[in-house]
Specification:
Blueprint (H helix, E strand, L loop, with lengths): L4 H18 E5 L10 E3 L3 E3 L5 E5 L3 H8 L1
Antiparallel strand pairs: 1-4, 2-3
């Protein structure tokens, strides 16, 4: 096993957590429903790739800075 595996796992978890908390995730088009159908490959993957529209969340401090 790689000696950096644990550190890489921690960084990956931090990255995903930051993306979820700092960005607002919306459907790619208004009213579009996400198809969660699975497909068996070497592992189980999504049959249709996940599509999303990603919008930054504006924190209170950020909006105060831009209004000045």
């Amino acid at each position: 096993m790689c000696s950096g595996y644990t550190l890489a796992t921690l960084h990956s978890e931090y990255l995903v957590g930051s993306l979820v908390s700092e960005l607002e995730w919306r459907p790619a088009a208004e009213g579009e429903v996400t198809d969660m159908t699975e497909q068996l490959d070497i592992t189980i993957v999504m049959k249709h790739p996940l599509r999303a529209r990603i919008v930054p969340r504006l924190s209170r401090n950020c909006s105060e800075r831009t209004s000045k």
